[in-house]
Design brief:
Length: 247
């Protein structure tokens, strides 16, 4: 067992960027093990987006029954489970949430957990140097665009998503690395907006790290969650603080 995870002290866990899909069955298997043996010991689990590689709509629930049942089992055992949309699965809706027994969170969301003010975000909105992506994000997060898209057939939606994913990978290969990371001014602006929380937790960039910031004289920890491509990980929060745990 990973050091720290076996601690029985009340705690919550944070994960993101699993990118679950049929082409990566090992990650799905690891996630199911994580739910059964690790997340089940936590008071709460927060999934901060890009949980799935893509989500074409809640009318595709039948393809994800194993994961849905596992999440519902976790909730039934007493672990409150929360989900925040990422840039890959922003179309997850109330039908999925109800089937899995989870609670949807807005991005960003400010919470108080174990006496700490914790600000949660997926993180893609902070990557403001990528102007083209931000324009795309604004388009697809529009309610009218989503409703029009969801009225198309599931097969058509999946085909369009595959085309978008392919184009995104091609465009990403030509972008400078720093453009795809968060913009510090955007981070500071978000921290000011929420009146200087002690901790900001986000994913998206696949660059796990702890950044200690000082914003207008306020000390803030920015924790970046890791992806699960090579090794699973979670961030653990308890009354003594935060720690990153490799699985």
């Amino acid at each position: 067992m990973v050091a720290g995870i076996g601690n029985t002290q009340a705690h919550s866990l944070f994960i993101s960027d699993l990118h679950l899909c049929s082409s990566r069955p090992a990650i799905t298997a690891q996630f199911l093990e994580f739910l059964q043996h690790i997340a089940s010991q936590a008071e709460a689990l927060y999934i901060l987006g890009d949980f799935f590689e893509y989500w074409a709509g809640d009318d595709d629930l039948a393809q994800h029954q194993t994961i849905i049942r596992a999440l519902h089992t976790l909730v039934d055992k007493g672990t409150h489970t929360f989900f925040m949309h990422g840039n890959r699965d922003f179309l997850i809706g109330n039908d999925f949430a109800k089937a899995a027994g989870i609670t949807l969170l807005e991005d960003p969301t400010l919470l108080e957990i174990y006496g700490k003010r914790i600000l949660l975000s997926h993180g893609d909105a902070l990557c403001t140097d990528d102007v083209a992506y931000q324009a795309f994000r604004q388009q697809v997060r529009n309610h009218d665009w989503q409703q029009a898209f969801l009225q198309q057939t599931l097969a058509s939606r999946k085909a369009q998503i595959e085309a978008l994913r392919k184009r995104s990978e091609e465009e990403k290969s030509g972008k400078q690395e720093n453009i795809m990371d968060v913009n510090q001014d955007a981070v500071h602006a978000l921290i000011r907006q929420f009146e200087y929380p002690q901790v900001l937790i986000h994913g998206h960039t696949h660059r796990p790290a702890l950044h200690k910031l000082v914003v207008d004289g306020h000390e803030v920890e920015r924790w970046v969650l890791g992806d699960w491509y090579d090794q699973g990980s979670c961030l653990r929060l308890d009354h003594s603080g935060l720690s990153n745990q490799l699985l």
